[in-house]
Amino acid sequence: FPVSNLQSAFFNLVMDVDHRASDVTHGINVFVGLVLCFTMLGLGCTVDVSQLGEHVRRPIGVLLALVCQFVIMPLVAFLLALAFSLDDVAAMAVLLCGCCPGGNLSNILSLLANGEMNLSIVMTISSTLLALVLMPLCLWIYSRAWINTPVVNLMPFGAIILTLCSTLIPIGLGVMLRYRYTRVADIVLKVSLWSLLVTLLMLFILTGAMLGPELLSAIPPSVYAVAVLMPLCGYAAGYGLAALFDLPPSSRRSVSLETGCQNVQLCTAILKLAFPPQLVGGMYMFPLLYALFQAAEAGVFILVYRTYREKVLHKADPLRDGGDVTYQ
């Protein structure tokens, strides 16, 4: 692909940022990784083993989430890239994000939305495991519209396996902690969520300070539009499909959040492996944009839901909790 002046300018900015940030990047990555593992430990403390078994025996919700994750989301990314006439590199960044499995953010948001946590965790583990096969397949199907390079050969399978381990091991420890020490598990859950909130605020501040408006202004408006619409389509498709199959409300929210939330860290890793910074330019920012919008949009939905729950549902039926996981 030809390198435009805009991409060249962006590359120079990225190199400047990388030079200034080289001393802290590794430490930030390690710190964030530890916080995420601790958060998954806390989420493991919410797991009910009996209900977890119900989702394994009757995996309707899991199957719906996988259809949304590896059929609907790649198709949505493909269609949005075509609709907004994105260039080849921008389209590949969008497609890579759409083909990624669900991220751990969906588990945290599901907890905040009073979703079915057992289903949420099973969905995340299942999508990450199946991404070893389905993600290369989706990329092979759709990427040929823009490039001939075999991007699937650059898949960071080690990163996927590491993601799987960093999810399974802390959650397993959290389940054991809940089984043996209930009060300690409650404390771990609260501390893990607050530590994650503080970490996210720190990351937003650091990101803004390191990048600045120059990098953000280098991204075309069409890419911003895709970053806004793509998670919205995922949330809507997930909830709609779950409602179509008559899943309980808590499970619908979990399927919705699992569909719209993508593993943006994995997307960034593939972009770095597949394309040099001079070529990708501002598209290195797309996973970050997607992460910001998927979190912001989910936050709005959760705020609306919790307000509706407190002002309407609770007054109508104080005993209603929406926690039934029985499939109709």
TrEMBL record:
Keywords annotated in UniProt: Cell membrane, Glycoprotein, Ion transport, Membrane, Sodium, Sodium transport, Symport, Transmembrane, Transmembrane helix, Transport
Leader peptide range in chain numbering: none
Listed Pfam families: SBF (PF01758)
Lineage: Eukaryota, Metazoa, Chordata, Craniata, Vertebrata
Similarity comment: family membership: Belongs to the bile acid:sodium symporter (BASS) (TC 2.A.28) family.
Protein name, entry field: Sodium/bile acid cotransporter 4
Transmembrane segments: 28-49, 61-84, 119-142, 154-179, 191-211, 223-245, 287-305
Compartment(s) of residence: Cell membrane
InterPro entries cross-referenced by the UniProt entry: BilAc:Na_symport/Acr3 (IPR002657), Bilac:Na_transpt (IPR004710), Na+/solute_symporter_sf (IPR038770)
Record's function text: Transporter for bile acids.
